[in-house]
Amino acid sequence: MLTKFETKSNRVKGLSFHSKRPWILASLHSGVIQLWDYRMGTLIDRFDEHDGPVRGVHFHKSQPLFVSGGDDYKIKVWNYKLHRCLFTLLGHLDYIRTVQFHHEYPWIVSASDDQTIRIWNWQSRTCISVLTGHNHYVMCASFHPKEDLVVSASLDQTVRVWDIGALRKKTVSPADDILRLSQMNTDLFGGVDAVVKYVLEGHDRGVNWAAFHPTLPLIVSGADDRQVKLWRMNDTKAWEVDTLRGHINNVSCVMFHAKQDIIVSNSEDKSIRVWDVTKRTGVQTFRREHDRFWILASHPEMNLLAAGHDSGMIVFKLERERPAFAVSGDSLFYTKDRFLRFYEFSTQRDTQVIPIRRPGSTSLNQSPRTLSYSPTENAVLVCSDVEGGSYELYTIPKDSIGRGDSMQDAKKGTGGSAVFVARNRFAVVDKINNQVLIKNLKNEVVKKCGLPIAADAVFYAGTGNLLCRAEDRVVIFDLQQRTVLGDLQTPFIKYIVWSNDMESVALLSKHAIIIASKKLVHQCTLHETIRVKSGAWDDNGVFIYTTLNHIKYCLPNGDSGIIRTLDVPIYITKVSGNTIFCLDRDGKNRSIVIDATEYIFKLSLLKKRYDHVMSMIRNSQLCGEAMIAYLQQKGFPDVALHFVKDERTRFNLAIDSGNIQIAVASATAIDEKDYWYRLGVEALRQGNAGIVEYAYQRTKNFERLSFLYLITGNNEKLSKMLKIAEVKNDVMGQFHNALYLGDVRERVKILENVGHLPLAYITASVHGLQDVAERLATKLGDDVPSLPEGKAASLLMPPAPIMCSGDWPLLRVMKGIFEGGLDNIGRGAADEEDEAVDGDWGEELEMVDVDGLQNGDVNAILEDGEVAEEIEEEGGWDLEDLELPPEADTPKASVNSRSSVFVAPTPGMPVNQIWTQRSSLAAEHAAAGNFDTAMRLLSRQLGIKNFAPLRPMFLDLHTGSHSYLRAFSSAPVISLAVERGWNESASPNVRGPPALVFNFSQLEEKLKASYKATTAGKFTEALRLFISILHTIPLIVVESRREVDEVKELIIIVKEYVLGLQMELKRREIKDNLVRQQELAAYFTHCNLQMPHLRLALINAMTVCYKAKNLATAANFARRLLETNPTIENQAKTARKVLQAAERNMTDAAQLNYDFRNPFVICGATYVPIYRGQKDVSCPYCSSRFVPSQEGQLCTVCDLAVVGADASGLLCSASQIR
Amino acid sequence: MDPFSPEGELINLHTAFHTGRFAAVASATTSSLSAANALPARILQLRARIAISPSSAAAVAKELASESSPVDLVAARTLAEHVASPSKDGPKDKALALSQSDGDNLTVQLCCGTILANAGQTAEALALLAKHQGSLDAVALITQIHLAANRLDLAVAELRNARAWAQDSLLVNIAESWAGLRAGGEKYQAAFYVFEELATAPPVPLGGDGEEETAGTAKALLGQAIAELHLGRLPEAEAALGTALERGPDDADVLATAVTLNTILGKDAERQAMLGRLAKANKEHPLLVDAQAKKDLFDSATAKWTPKFEVEA
User: For the ranges A439-443, A677-681, A769-773, A903-907, which has the lowest average pLDDT?
Assistant: First the structure.
């Protein structure tokens, strides 16, 4: 029994679980009803209105209601949200034993000592039926979960089943309610809407409890005769099936378990007993010391039970619900029912692997607790509590993942816990001797190791290491050196989870998570108020864990937060990106997609990955008060700034982060005095005088402004301030400004104007303004004040500031890495065609307006010259498959190193030889170092006779297919063959084909690079790249026929470019021959090029022809150019101008060997057009066409094959041979 | 008691030797060992020094030049001389002579077996090594000779025998990985696990005066890299090899593997750099020898075609 929650109280007589919330109602003998949260362990509410014991209580399934019945004869219906009793149903004439809501109708059934059962409508608050028939106290009555039945138990020693079908029919229309009121009396006496269906007799004493099976037609009852009886019924009768004996006092309550085939009963003998329904035997007994049990209740949805006794109640589970599982890479092994199952995360494939328990064995809490898996040996260790802790070792057969039902004979042993410590070693705890036994897969002890602490469980901690758990600590123990590597005081640890890189470990206890390093150095601890269930590390080192009702995260620095809430507990098995894989309590694999934004953001912030932070700010809706508060608290107001739209918050954050620009913008938007003032203060702190000035101006703070001008030495503005003060008639302001300016005359004038003549006089005379002083003296007449004697007066001038005007050197504010980044959002990738502008694509053309039009639409189609695709079916000197036996099969000279007569073994066959025997692919021969045969193959297949260009490829292939292993020190190196396409299913001793240095995707990359070089006008470079592609293709090997076609296509593409570029380069060489230049430029446009390249070629040809006054031809190119819808406006414009110019004068200055109306191909050597119908020869490899005179020459395009040679065609995939 | 058994004093030294911590072995303090183990320990240290580099081997040869007994030292000196200048015939002849006269001595078996194997006299080497009395070193060497001769079956049989008596010894595991790398298939993965374990296990202090070492020697990392290379996990192989290059920048085998890997990855610049470093580290490395041989082969093979082509032209 796994106790989840316990209370101490008066005797508990009634219990009821809430169907959704973690609540339970307990009605007490003292008259109080308690509402508990059993998860948090808190008393939520108490309802104290009954007088005397409350024996029955029941939650409504969906409404916020519950019903209670007590010894005060009252049935009360309560609303727990309103914390009060809604109404009381009166009618019973004695104690009420049980009350229950109907699952569907607004009914309550109650059982009473008045020998009746009553059914009430709680909406109309009336009794709608009275069931009479029992002739003693009715101890319990309850509705059937689905059918129109009621079962009751009575001290009259019977159990009765009542049919209430008639009652249900009557409630179809609400109008019947009124009708029924009048029928009430007939019901009372006639009892037509509820009739006794069966009377079950068999108990020798009063029956205390009877209950239906949730699905089967079974009833279970418990009585004072200390027996539990099992009854079965059908449509017509009911009979006793069996009696379960064992209780030694009155059985008070009994019920079927909703999910397992068991019966649970409790009794005044202070025990709870669990019985097997099918075998009718006792399975388990739980005893209490002093308390008699009175009531049982089961949770309507979850696997929870509760029992009330003399001094309180307990909420408990019979069995653990956590499926045992082990994760290894992409695979998850877990147990469900009696099978070991396998789940693949990537494919979400779920298969049953092997049975691990015999069918039909229901023993509680004997199911596997933990699994440990060794991927290399494909073995599983299953630990369970059987016999006080034992393990079973299963080897998973390779191929029999399937339905097999035969039990494997597992290797078994006892021990507290067992776990793999190396690929074929596992450790078992021997608690008695406080040691671990290291065993091999044959279950033989290979080593014994004393443990440093009294550990009762061990966990994996890297190869050869164990993490040992004791009550109050964990240690990591090295089994080889027998030393303790790390030690940490912890609460009792239940599970551990290693991070993917094995650098950190999460230790999970009941209510805490401790993150430690691999040496058990404490990193952080998280405390939870409710139980921690499971956890896994994500790829970024964030620990994702679940509690009973939340998925949460924990960052490396200990920050944690909720990702989402959970309805039911889950057990996380793996976190991959933002998908959480988990097992639920039914052992089903689920994947939950979570929003990882928040913790990824926080993590990026923590790791100072500001680029990530920025892209997240840009791309996601990360916002909310919590995030801003977090950022501010963590000292990133500048980051928070980017989330906030509210100007006031923005202003505050900007001031916090010293971002004066944003602060100004916000202050402008808010435009309140207080904000301007604060802006001024911050700007002053930073030394940004301009903004200080602006802020003061906005608030019309003239004093401060004047002083600011004074200290910045801005006399000009200061005099303006003086004027303003004058206008405003602000004498003090005037005077101050005058003082700041050192303007004595002004001061005197001000003093005079305001009537301070003596002061004015003194000021004037002290500063030596004699004329003014005299004038004032006359005004004053007799009242001329005397000047102080013996003091030399001097004009006090404000000192000139060191720096005048402008800002002071600004305070360096930590400038956000963010600001810079956020400002250059969306700098688009440069259009490829723009690059061409700088390139070598011919000069700009000066245009003159001309008229004239020329017609004739030309679409020169280049004939690609399909390569003959016949594949050689047989023959050759190399295609016979020798199928030599693999090397392991060579005759076994029975070598026993101990034998006295030594026979030296003969050398075996090198891998190279095996490779070449099997293959007719030139590349594989070259890789094997068999250059000679490789060349013969190439010659035969592709007509290649010139191998010099292939030299580096051959050598690379050979180098790339061998590695060298220096095994024993100073001894010879072993050469190892590198194979292609290794996968896990490859079996040893069968040689795969050699690894090849070149592959198709490389060529595609190269092709892109070549295109780019062409676009940029780097023709030599482009040509070099194209030719290198052409030279690599003969040594390419691909898998499928589809890819073979792609390779062939590639040859054609590349060939066209090579030819075109060769011509273009040639054109540049012959500067003086204008006609030939035009011809080559024209031919170039007939090579099969990519659209941007074609456009450039057309412009090129157009320009050349136009310059040479071949206007008609130029016009043709211009038209073709326009037909391509050029994206660059300039190109189109030039083309249109050429067209216009040509239209006026549709002539050609020189005759070209170029007839664009007639389809042609170009000879690869002589660069002359071969019009359709003319004879030609082609290259067997690249399929370039040549004039017949070139036959027997080396192909000038690919530089490999001989023109016109016989060849069987490209062979570059094993699939072509099959 | 077998001095190399797990309870023995030499186990750490022996393990360190086979994981490639040669410098640490050479500088380890051996004074605390019992008298019986002093000689085996010294031999291990000498072998470690020989393994470090040819020049270090030359120093050993010089140091032992005057030693004539016990025969172990003579054998070690012969090996040192051989490694210092592999082309000389003197040490080979000496090795052959020693194997005749003192074939029952384990050091003679190992040192002379190595020399003979290097000289291509595998039959003699195997005959000599067959005389060993339960030495894992000898088993490992035999395994290697079989592998080099493409007799995987014999190597596997040898190891199966050894596992019967040596159980889970580290060296058996390592030698199994060698065989595994030749066998291929799932054995690659098994080999990878062993090398990875070696490469990540923290080094056991040997009491030498050398600096504190980090986990993973060049040799172990190289094994890991090769296994990964064979498993087709090229980025991982590159990473492991990178670490190996840090640990042993002049290790010819590491450089050779780097050449291979960079060839596969198509990184030509790196490959040329590695080739240069390899040539500097060991001109005689099989990779270079083989590459040269293949170049010549190519030229001679091309020669068959070229004249014919020219005639046609």
Answer: A903-907
| Spans of all domains in chain A | 325-528, 610-688
Q: Answer yes or no: do B305 and A939 touch at CB < 8 A.
A: yes
What distance in Å separates residue B14's CA from the closest CA in chain A?
A: 12
Q: What is the CATH number of domain A325-528?
A: 2.130.10.10
Phi, psi of A642 (to 5 degrees): -75, -10
The order of strands in the sheet holding A207-212 is A207-212, A218-223, A227-233, A238-245
User: What is the Cα–Cα distance from B78 to A143, expressed in whole angstroms?
Assistant: 98
Closest to A433 (Cα-Cα) out of A405, A461, A409, A414: A414
Residue A388: DSSP 8-state: G
Domain ranges of chain B: 134-183, 200-282, 288-313
| Chain B touched by A557 (CB under 8 Å) | no
Element (H, E) at A696: helix A689-698
Set of chain B residues whose Cβ sits within 8 Å of the Cβ of A916 = none
Q: Do B142 and A970 touch (CB under 8 A)?
A: no
Q: Which fold has domain B200-282?
A: 1.25.40
Average pLDDT, chain B: 79
Residues 120-179 of B with CB under 8 A from A: 122-123, 126-127, 129-130, 132, 137, 139-154, 156-158, 161, 167-168, 174-175, 178
Query: What's the rounded mean pLDDT across residues B171-190?
Result: 82
From CA A263, how far away is CA A107, in angstroms rounded?
A: 27
Q: Cα dist. A177→A130, A169, A599, A834, A1081 in Å?
A: 15, 12, 58, 86, 101
pLDDT attached to residue A399: 62
User: Considering only CB atoms, which chain B residues are within 8 Å of A963?
Assistant: 226, 229-230, 256-257, 260
Predicted complex: ipTM over 0.85: no
Residues A191-242 have pLDDT tens digits of 467 888 999 999 999 999 999 999 999 999 999 999 999 999 988 889 999 9
* Ordered alpha helix ranges (H), A1073-1154: 1074-1084, 1091-1107, 1111-1123, 1129-1144
Alpha-carbon distance of B16 to A1216, in angstroms, equals 51
In Å, how far are A139, A232, A1164 from A134, measured between CA atoms? 10, 21, 112
Q: Is B253 on the interface with A (CB under 8 A)?
A: yes
Say how far apart CA A721 and CA A501 lie, in whole Å: 70
Q: Hey, what are A772's tokens?
A: 């003014």
Assign A93 to helix, strand or coil: coil
DSSP state of A1216: G
pLDDT in tens, A402-447: 555 566 677 888 887 888 888 788 899 888 888 888 888 888 888 8
DSSP lists the bridge partners of residue A245 as: A227
- The predicted structure's pLDDT at residue B133: 80
| pLDDT tens string B125-155 | 888 888 888 788 888 888 888 888 888 888 8
C-alpha torsion angle, residues A698, A700, A703, A706 (rounded to 10): 60
Mutation to test the A interface, candidates B47, B50, B226, B305, most A Cβ within 10 Å? B305
Cα A437 to chain centroid distance, Å, stands at 40
